[in-house]
């Protein structure tokens, strides 16, 4: 049989759903939720996939789907310069086609797309050597910070013989400075002005403009994200955070997942952290967590957050649908590609990635 590389036709989305049920598990969300799949791999976000059913590169054999890699098309930003890029998701192939190199073929096909940067997160450990061989910059684990809000509830979720000794609640102190934080149901009109200034100071990652925040958070098809914006005493926008409350399936405990903290200064970090901590208390969550490749460690620790690796003997779960008491690290691979405008920049040092990048914060 001859392998054929092509995009997915609109009439073939059901075949993709079946592919996920077969090779990712019968309960996998991408095998059962058509709307979510089309949102995640939206062909409307890139002219490359115009007219396709999904933003994905696929391999077919005699009409049978045998390999797929999803492409979340979105610009990346490097120090204020923006170019079309992509996050990869759900690289997979039928087992009998792995010896024929379908996984490598899919990656090679993606590298031919007209994009400047490419990333993947939550990668199967078995294929990390392939990413390294393809000259990706790899991180073994995205740093995760945790803030205990309710000791008793947290102890019911976090395992380890010393859990009770380590899990300490610290009352949330009022933020210093004059920064005010308010909830917002929409992206502020002056967001782009703030964002442009923020990225010019040294940034490489997803272009988090208003369109991205609306698509990724405020209009998410399944999860309820909230946006909080920070302003100084003159009313100037100086930061924002995005979070959601997660109810543990079939249990009473709740979590606070903090996805974004974007702040112009230490005082703004402090104000945004104080705000999300107050939200956590109001909702009675067990603990809050935040993943970031560039965490403000001093600000976090000063407010009682600790890094997961500070207590390696604890088992702090990250999956709660259902609750699974084991550690799950989020690894990461990023590279520049093609005629990128960013060669020679300090992009590795300024790499900004959070859990929602690569769609790692998603319903299960």
Describe this structure as you would to a colleague.
The chain has 364 residues and is of the alpha+beta class. It is 24% helix and 29% strand. The chain is built from 10 helices and 16 strands. The chain has helices at residues 13-23, 34-40, 102-111, 128-133, 151-157, 163-166, 191-199, 210-218, 266-283, 297-302, and strands at residues 3-8, 54-61, 64-78, 81-93, 117-121, 137-139, 144-148, 180-184, 204-206, 226-231, 237-247, 254-263, 287-291, 306-307, 332-336, 351-352. The strands form 2 sheets. Strands 1, 2, 3, 4, 5, 6, 9, 15 and 16 form a 9-stranded mixed β-sheet that branches. Strands 8-10-11-12-13-7-14 form a 7-stranded mixed β-sheet, sandwiched between helices. The longest helix is centred in the last third of the chain and has 18 residues, at 266-283. It is globular. The chain starts with a strand and ends in a 12-residue tail after the last strand.
Can I get a quick summary?
By secondary structure, the chain is of the alpha+beta class.
Number of separate helices:
10
Q: Name the beta content range.
A: 25-35%
In round numbers, the mean pLDDT is 94
Number of strands: 16
Task: Sum up the overall morphology in one term.
Answer: globular
Order of helices and strands: EHHEEEHEHEEHHEHEHEEEHEHEEE
Structural class: alpha+beta
Q: What distance lies between the first and last C-alpha atoms, to the nearest angstrom?
A: 35 Å
**Low-confidence sequence ranges:** none
Helix content: 10-25%
Biggest sheet features: 9 strands, mixed
Taking all Cα atoms into account, the compactness measure Rg is 21 Å
